[in-house]
Every structure is written in C-alpha cells, then in structure tokens.
Model the fold of this input.
Amino acid sequence: MADGYFGKVLEIDLGSGEVKTRNIDDALARKYLLGSGLSAQILYTEADLSADPLSPDNPLIFMRGFLNGVPTPGSSKFNVCSKSPLTGIWNEACAGGHWPATFSFTGNDGIIFTGASEKPVYIYLTDEKCEIRDASHVWGKDTFETSEILKAETGKNARVASIGPAGEKLVRIASIMFDGTNARAAGRSGMGAVMGSKKLKAVVVAGGKRVPIHDRDKMKALLKEQIPDIVKNTKGLRDFSTAGGVEAVELHGDLPIKNWQLGSFEEGATKLCAQTFLPKTLFKHYACWACPIRCAKIIKVDKGPWAPLFGHGPEYETIAGFGSMCLNDDYEVVMAANELCNRLGLDTISAGGAVAFAMEAREKGIITDDMAEGLKLEWGNGEAIVGLTKRIGLRETELGWLLGDGVKRASEKLGKNSAEFAIHTKGLEYPYHDPRAFVSMAPNYATANRGACHLEALSYFLGRGIPLPDMGYTEPPDPHSQEGKGSICYDLQNFMGIFNPLGLCKFLFLGRVGPKMIAGWMRAVTGWDMDDHELLAASERIVNIKRLYNVRLGVTRKDDVLPRRLLTQPRPSGRAKGVLPQLDRMLDELYDLRGWSDDGIPRKETVERLGLSDVVKDSHLHPSER
Done:
C-alpha cells in the first residue's frame, strides 16, 4: 500500500442501512487515481446505466481527491459523481473548503451510496464510526440552518455537506452545499437532486487521522520553494476572487450578455466587478484548507432592499449569470440571488441561465403574463431575477417547476422557437465563457464529458496569456484563429483531467502550476516513481472511460454540438466581434488525436493503448470494431 490514501471506501445502502467496506489496492489507485477517476471506473464497471438518475438504483459516489488533506496549495477539491438527473449522462461535481480535508481525516477515501431511505437521514462519519441518523428535524431547512443544527449535534469541529429544499424537491439543477455560510458548492448537473432522491439530507464528518505522506521533509522543501511564486501569480484572486476578473473578461469579448446576444457591457462590468463592491461589502477573506491563495470572500450587507445578506460572495460565474446575462448591473441583486442559491442548494450557473432564458421567452411572447404570475420578466429587473430564482429553488408555480428541470426540458415543453435560445450542450447550461471569444473552447464544450463545462479544458487561460511551458505553451495562441485548436483542446483536457482525481483546484493553472510540479507532489506523497507523463496518461485514460460511459448511453458525434446561437450568430461588438468557431474542423482534429472514430467513439486500439481492455467490452465500441 502506497502512502497518500487509505485504500478504504465505504459502501452504504441507504435502503437497508447496511454499511460495508471495500478495499482499494495500489494498482487500481495508480491507474485511476482517486476522485472522479476511481469513481468513473466504479460506475462504468458496476452501475446499471439504464437506471433513472433519481431512482434508488443509481449510485452516488463521494470520493476524496488524492491530495485532499495534504498541505499542498489548492488541494481541497472533493468529487461527487453519478449519472446526472439533468443530462442523463456522466457527471462529476467538485467542492472545496474544509470539508474535503476533514473527510480525509476520517481515514476513508470515499463513500458509495446506493438505495434510498424511507425517511430523511444524515450520515455522521468519524475516524471511529459511521452512523446513519434521523434527519427529519432538518428536512425542509436551508443549508445554512442545517449546518448550524447538525454541528450543534455532532461537535464544533464537524463539517457539514447538505442539500437544501431544491435537492429535497428534486430540482434537476440542485447542488450540494458544503461548510454552511462559507458555501462551497458541488454545483453542476443536479447532484443535490440525487441526494434528495435518496432522502439523504447531509453528510457530516469529523476525524483525527492524518493522511499518510511518504516523505514529509521532501514535501515541505518543495512547498517552501514553490508557494511564494504561486501566491505571487494569483495575487488578483487573493485580492478580489474570480469576481475581480469581470472587466477583463468583458474586454476580451468573453462575457455573455443578454442571453448570449450582445457583444459589449463595459459600464455594467465595471459596476459588477469586485473592485467596485468589495470595498463596501467585504466581511473577511476566506481560504480553503491549507491553501495560501485565499481567494474566497465573505460579504456582509446590512442595508438596502436585499439586506441582510451574509456569506460567501458571488464569484465570476454567478455575477455573469445573474448580472450581464440578464442585463442587470446591480451587484446587490446578484448577491441576493447568490445567497438564495446557497441557502436553497441551487447551481448559480444553471439558475442564471434559466432566468435569462425566461426573460427572452417572455420578451418573445412564449412565456405569458399568466405563467409569470406577477413577476415582470423584463431585462435587468432585480425583483424578477431574485423572485424567479426563489421559485425555481422551491419548485413554486408552474414556471418554477418548468425552469427547475433546466432550459433544455423547458424549451421542449414551451415549444415554438424557444430551443433557439436555450443555451446548453447535452442538457447542461453553459458556463459564462464564450467559444466565440476563445474558439478553442468550442471543441471542449462539445466533447466535455458532463456537457457544457469550461473546467474540462480552461483553454481560454492560454488565450489570456497564462503559459503552460510543461506542455509547450509559452506564448498565447491567437484566440480567434481556428488553426490547431483541436490540439489545444486535447492537451488542455488531458491536463485539466488530472485535477479532479487528485482533488486539486484548477486555479493552480493561474499560479503557473504544471504537470511536472504536480508529479513532484505525488512522488513525495505516495512514494511512487510517477512523472508528468504517467499523470497525463492516467488523465487520458480517465477522460476516455468517462466518454465510454456516455457512449453506452448513446452519446456520439451527433451530441457533440454547440447551441445554434453560438455557432451562427457572431457577437455584434467588442473584441470578439464577428468571430464564429468552425466546430467540425476542430472536432476532426480532436477525434484524430484522441483515437476516436468519426462518430466520436474510442477505437479498440485506443482502449488497448490506455489499458482499458480489462473493463471495456467489445460491445461498447464502434460497430465496425466489435
């Protein structure tokens, strides 16, 4: 057994209450790492992929990243994986904060939840015991209240991951919230609804074990040398969080405006950025466990129409979703919608996209005044933004129910031409970086395993001037040129694919952390003779097994698409004016590098090259290779 992990995953059947343990050996851990990597191997080989995502037969996996609980920078990203109730395909959602390290201190690497409880329950897990406790008294309460109540029951050092009313009511864009008012979210694609379907209100952890580290002296020496540069390179995050980048994103033509219709929002971006609102609202800076970057900000608003507000302040994605997407430039409206999402357990990206979709549908007469039930769904209307967000999270009114299932399902029910402005890929609403501004994001959005996800490549970082010399990127590529963008997507998906299995924050990319540095951390922690090439090979293996999971669910090239608006309607102004991605050209290049068929299915030789032949059946491959 190597150091760095415990080799122990709990299996909890919420229907019967049975708790078992499975062992994870070195070979499996080294091949798939932990986090979403090992979760993908388990779900691919063991889960019934025909199961409805909200049925008891759909497993839900909580899995620590390999470096959770190890004091490397940004090592506090925990993975929650399952079949998504929003998209019906693979999903992984990650959360930071202190919960991931505390989970590691229980001496476990993960939990596989199966079945469903008849009544609300929560898990209390320590390094000595695992208890399934009654949660009837917190069912219906928001995540802030739930955290306070359960910490009072279990101890001040306990950490709480819970769902709010959105998860309980099976809203398909419901998130899982960690650490109470600090509000770290496993946000995307409905993992909160999967918890709710199992009547699992919360997972509370407290432990005193240390993660075994092979060479602590070596690790200390590496961090002493590397942390100063990481902190220096992420000063903007440290000072302002991602919200400090709103103006810069707008300058690049990357900020989505009026549901992806417009090109410029200069004054609005200035009003919404952290440099404007933090001097008036900052309560304190917040850092995830052992992270020197300290990028999170806790805000407090005591006066005004939306007061009182307290908790984790809005990040860039939330500001874009409830701000520019809705033509709103009032940061307090964004903060109010953000707090609602954190309390109710709602993904701010999908919620913001749903509100903007509804505003355009109302403008076009597809949503009527009767459906709006008193809300004036006009662009920039703060009352409508906050009011509709609440209705979505609580499943209130016909429109709240409709939008809580995501814009794809909403457009299918509304009909007319609403599909033209329902901005999603594979059912997942878009995050707020435009593939017309950085065209390398187009093949990533099309092929990202959980649907429209910027985090599976983050290739726009290169276009903004962040180098990645370990992989040959020392100068920023032309963000609008179509040349070589499939190759960039391939490299960046493989690099980013390291992070979730290892439990690392992807902002380390901004800190100029590359695969060689990460491999050095892994050697110090595990004792394995692992270099950057082995890490990247493991990442490519994991990317492909997730793709094969989706292939078994029917995903092919026909699904690797972008919304028509982003392929055919250029931005009318700003730096990205007139640019459109040539998706088919980039997909051809990416498929060729991946070793996929023209239909987007991994070839048999690719499966063999990546060491997946032991788990991938011929029947899962392209028909010509079976």
